[in-house]
Amino acid sequence: xxxxxxxxxxxxxxxxxxxxxxxxxxxxxxxxxxxxxxxxxxxxxxxxxxxxxxxxxxxxxxxxxxxxxxxxxxxxx
Length: 77
Hints:
By secondary structure, the protein is an alpha+beta fold. It has one helix at residues 3-18; strands at 31-32, 38-41, 48-52, 57-62.
């Protein structure tokens, strides 16, 4: 991974810690699931959003745990 991508990833992790949902979201072209549903993925944080192909509009966020938090267990306080 290039230094620029590592720096960007670290900046996003820091933003997520300081400001929840702090990603500015950059979306690519809509994708299609095997079940026929369309969705878009943020190129920066990986969050997935439903996409209505008919109206060409992004919908609600489909929960996806951020990459840097996957596999981290929450412990009871």
